[in-house]
Sequence to fold (1085 residues):
Amino acid sequence: MFFYSLKNLFSPPATLEKGTPPPKNYRGTILYFEETCIYCKKCEMVCPPGAIIFTYPEDGSKKLKFHYNPYLCIYCGECVRACPKPGTLVQAETPSPPATADQKPNDQWFEIEKLAVESKKKWQEARKRMREQKNKNQQ
Amino acid sequence: MKTLLLVLAILAPLLGGIIYGLERKVKARMQNRMGPPILQPFYDFFKLADKRPLQVHSFHTLMGIAFFLAAWFAVFSLMVGPNLLVAIFLHVLALLFITAGGFSVKSPYSVMGALRELTHILAAEPILVFAVVGLYLASGSWNVIDILHSEPPPLLKMPLVFAVLLLTLPILLKKSPFDISEAHQEIIGGWEIEYSGIYYEAVYTAKWLEYVFVYFIIFLFGGANYLLGLGLVLLAFLFVALIDNSTTRLTIHHMVKFSLGVLLPLAAFNVFWVALWGH
Amino acid sequence: MFKFLKRFRKKSPWILHYNTGSCNGCDIEIYACLAPKYDIERFGMLNKGNPKQADILLVTGPVTKRARARLLRIYMQMPEPKVVVAVGACACTGGVFRHMYNVENGVDRYIPVDVYIPGCAARPENIIAGIEKAIEIWEQKSRDRLELPKVCTKTLDGKQPIDRRQIVEELVGKYTEKLNPEELL
Amino acid sequence: MGKKFVVPFGSQHVALPEPIRFVFTTENEIIRNVAVDFGYVHRGIEKACMSKFKYTQVPYVVARVCGLCSISHASGYCLAIETLMDIEVPKRAVYLRIIAHELDRIHSHLFAVSHLCEVAGYENLFMRVMRDRELVMECLEIFTGNRVQYDFVTIGGVNRDLTKEVYEELKPRLEELEKRLLQLKEIFEKDYTLQMRWKGAGVITKEMAQKYNAVGPIARASGLATDCRVEFGYFPYEELGYRMVLYHEGDIWARNMVRVDESLVSIEIAKNAMDNLPEGEINVRVRGNPNGEALVRWEAPRGELLYYVKGNGKPVLERLRIKTPTFSVIPVMKELYYNQPYALVPDITISFDPCLSCTAR
Amino acid sequence: MKNFQEEKITPDQLREKIKSFYKEDEWHFITINGTDTGKSIEVKYFFAKYGKKEPVYALSLEIDYDQTLPSITDLIPSAWIAEEELYDLLGVKVEKAKGGIFLEPDSPKAPLRKSFQPKEK
Ligand code: SF4
Ligand code: SF4
Ligand code: SF4
Ligand code: SF4
Ligand code: SF4
Ligand code: SF4
Ligand code: SF4
Ligand code: SF4
Fold:
């Protein structure tokens, strides 16, 4: 070890430059492209921590709103594998950036979780109303 | 000469900080990494001054500050003061202060560190005394100025004492393998654990003063040949860094055995040899 | 005077690491940060195992019920100014452990968190980036701002011994009351 | 007779990456009594896997039981489910699992080794081992896409293939690592102060290991030949160059050496598996729900890992039981502390390479 | 598909049974597992042989929710930790177990029982 220490003293350090990017195929942030999504909610169902949540529109239409929390995501990639439409969910090769306190990643998510439950109820009611309307119209 | 030494003693904390910074850099490079900037200790110094201080109780704090002051006085009496022995005495006193501080709080790590520090004193100070006695025998005076004018350099008369002093450095400066009283991974710094903010600063800088104190004694072995003195200091510095980086921490028993069983007899042998037959 | 000293803060952040029930993944990444490849000492950071001398608290893990009192105690022992960095998904929001019966879903329910570092596990590069952000926030903080209520009123008569444990427990009680107990399940 | 002195160790301590709390009663720095609290990390994973998660999600959850051997947990669980449901895993997937698992073992062992150096106060060696460990971390990152949580294994196979490009990235790194590990081994064998500190310290005799049912490297350092890779026989380890590493001293040094030697064996296994990779699919589709019970003993880096699963024909399991290696060594660890000097506590603790996150789950 | 050998016994036979076959240098005691079946608690003791490629051997018994289970810590010294866990997480009354190794006062009691259902989110 004496020799090793001396040798190191005169050789360049092994320290990496700051900000070296991760290697190819790193499992980073999940990106969502709404155009191709068919709202099958498979991604929400498979996600272990529940980092993907859909909230429902109040008017009962099928266009759900996608929410993703990079501070809850465990970057397992299950959602990407589960998605039936390739290209809707893509896993980027860079990690998500750190957030500061004013972004409130946790508190906001509690609200979204609550919202998802509430909006689903409202949405179901709206759907029911729509169906009843339709039935009425048919009669 | 005298004024130069006075200035040096006043600037001792600064000097110590630079030595500490250099040491951290060299250590990092020996570990194959970049390491902090050399002025890092001073950044730490200013940062600590900016923290909100927490006090355990006033005696504890007082002991920390007393440690710093006594260490500084030790440096003064070494560089300008009358007598080398006084310097050693003050140095021991400084360590005793911090030990008392360590004992005065309830934290078990602190008490344990203080207990171990006592053993450190026991192991290292006798050798320091021998080193000073060696210097006295070589130059015929207890005074620094005389030692700094002595020809030939004391090193030639006291090679064994110098070698022993070199080997004691890890104990004195609390470096691996004998960093037992601090032992970051066991007792998280030992007696310094309960200090914080500006009070920790006193302890932190007092340690820099120890560097100056110890390296100046080494410098004295160069006698009138200042270049030789500087060379010795550089050698000692590198030696300590190398040892620190190439050994594990040993236990307190190893330390006492090594110091009192090997180092002390060697130093004593050299000193008595010179005292009895040297002239 | 303090303005002058403030400038040096960003050059000497001393970190303290506490694991509140993580899987170790993020902890070993913090250790990897100390190693030559990422060497955080080049930014002046030291791993101080001592809350009284630390400036940045790195917390990993979703805060289990047993760890929270200790977490609060460590947080209170750290002198101001200080910042807290939540490392990894589970420290930020609970991660996979969210809504399990013995965890509290993230560090920020107990102590104020300044920076959240995502990832499971957080990459060392990302941890360094997060700490840099934390240092920016740290520079803005004032040295006497107390972030938790000063709860110790027991010393008024100057005689009664201080039971820190009790203080912490009271504090935990205070903070748990504020949360909806049903949410904790 | 010295004064009795109570020293807490943990839960927050520099030598510990994880919260475990010991309270030692010492006498002149000699330990006379010890109490241990390892419940800081209890999160309730077993219950969550039995109520909240579907069985197909569980591999990603159990991987988070522990970051150091996430792949052991995921594979142990998947293997148990596959046995339960009679799924034949493609041979290529089996080999890929072996590679990932052995790389994971290297990373875990090297972390333990470096950590042991760190607590022994040998900072330079800590840095050196950590630097060399980065090689295997890079391998794992390139191979699976993350440095710690690989999420590589699923029920029925694996998630990623080992392409030619990846192979070319991995091979030179492993060879370099092997060279460096051999140098390291020499240091551990020769270094004087290390021997002084570790040899003869914290000795677990073979009898003690048997009495308290020690597992993994701790048992093998005491001369107790037990290894689930042989005893359970789930993978073709023998054909890939597996051999058991056995030391008989039972002290800290031996435990360290077992880890170093096993890393070398693991490199060999990984290289062999990489060179003889069979062609074919990497996973099969899984249908239906588990019904019945199965049990897997898996050799994680720290020793025997037990997965017991019981399904009842529903997507959510009826029982999932994880018995982790550290859970098994805590009794022997507690016994070992008596009459040791406090100065050795960090070394002894870390020489067990304790991982509490899986002990408490 | 079951891949281990199982032998059904009653709680009273447990100690006799273990005494009769358990030898320290031959058998490796793995752990104790408890499962709530909905009617009672099924407890399994797992053993393996050192160095042999044999299926794991399990002793299985069923006890009622409030029945006391005899301790085997004096026969197998490392069993205390598994017994404590059984007591803590499943609420099985094991002789001498004190509990509290994992759970805090405000954690749910005996969380692994079926009677405890965590809130679905
Ligand atoms: S990567 Fe995993 S955790 Fe993240 S959103 Fe997708 S499924 Fe959820
Ligand atoms: S799985 Fe894909 S298509 Fe389906 S909802 Fe999610 S993103 Fe849209
Ligand atoms: S994959 Fe096709 S059939 Fe299946 S849910 Fe999506 S749209 Fe429907
Ligand atoms: S850290 Fe330890 S010594 Fe300090 S107050 Fe807390 S319990 Fe007491
Ligand atoms: S964020 Fe993921 S890797 Fe980090 S501690 Fe939590 S579970 Fe482990
Ligand atoms: S009791 Fe008073 S003095 Fe003590 S910590 Fe609390 S507030 Fe501070
Ligand atoms: S014992 Fe440790 S390394 Fe092994 S599976 Fe458990 S957590 Fe992972
Ligand atoms: S011993 Fe357990 S907690 Fe520790 S690293 Fe291993 S699995 Fe994780």
